[in-house]
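ok so I'm stuck.
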Amino acid sequence: MAEALIAPLSVAQVSGAPQGGGAERIAYTLYRGLAAAGHRSFLFVGRGGTDEPGVYQIPDPVGDTWRSRTVGALRQSVTPYVGRLRGAWRLEKLLRLLERPGQLEDWYAGREYFNFPGTRDILSFSGEKLDILHCHNFHGGYFDIGQLSIISRHIPVAMTLHDEWSFTGHCAYTLGCERWRFGCGSCPDLSIYPSIMRDATAFNLNRKREIYSNSHLFVSAPSRWLLDRAINSVLSNGIITSQVINNGVDLGVYNANISQAEARSRLGLPGDCRIIIFAANGARNNIFKDYKTVSSAFRLLAERYYNKPLLLLAIGDRGAPERFGAAEMRFIPYQSDPLVVASYYQAADLYLHAAKADTFPTTILEALACGLPVVATATGGIPEQVKTLESMPGRLPSVTTYAVTEATGALVPMASDEGMAVASAAILSDETLRERLAANAARDAIHRFSLTRQIAETVDWYCEIRERFSQLQDS
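replied:
not stuck anymore, here's the structure
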């Protein structure tokens, strides 16, 4: 860290947009965090450029053609009706494909489209001499990964993985499919995001292999689970060095400094019941989450294992409340204000998380930081977040366990509503245990999952990258 303080770095994050999902939020957080730490920090985005100093939209030469302007105007007139009128989203997607020559043909053939000419100018359009170009998710239609072989020989390219897309034939998560290991093809599900029209997965993966083989990439991932998969994939052809850097959360927002009673009062929540949280955007229809297991576990908990009033708050979705006996399930729409989200965690007694695929979910980090014990399915990188109590009923037998002085919750088998219900009952039925796990969770988040730690480790990584890149240039 001494080097970073003496010689500030000039770093640009590359992301699809300044605001959005997990990867975009992390890129923006790094951009702001590096600036606050005294570095020259920039954010290059594919869409949604703002007037914020340091945020630049990547040039889009194709966007200035007569065809793209005309089709783009039509698309923008349709966009307000997406989600309101039947078929509007299909028309909007078609118009988006028509904006670029060749994109419709590639889409129809199932080929991933990378022809975004503005990528070639990414090192010059801001007028800044950069020390590091830090790239995040490339899927989203804004970046030509074919240019990596050129860019990475002129400037160190750091690449943080947020999902599996970089080494698959099209999907962001493989959901148990292992074809990515030996070439893809005969894809079992073309509809997984980002979906493709036809099975060109073997072609897509082979093209990525060729691109990486001619690139110099410094790769990180928030979990060992994801990084190990990358190291055993086509991406390994371009990896110079790799490192795990856990994501962090803002402990000034997500913390256990607000009492449960005060948080419930702020939100108008009842004070005479146990409150459980599950947070996921579009939880019920999100194919990567497992709302079915959470809802089934909650019902089992209420009907078999815990006979006192219960309230489950599913944050990030809409729907009518559901009641069964003394238990109620409520849906809370997506909340954009982090302080409001933190208040929900602070008001609760327990956090549940079930998923079919997850890299390193931020919601679990937020819950831990707010002093919530977590019961979660052992999926992807989640076992690297939650420390299972050694005597916990319902836990996955194969996971590492911890004494009550360190444990923060429980990991249960995937899709195990029974395991999740039993573990939840054990925590909710013993207030002394729950409070001990809650205190451990908040302490562990401070030690392992702070945003300050993430920024510091990232800066140290940048310094190591610069040194290694200089050695490559000299060899």
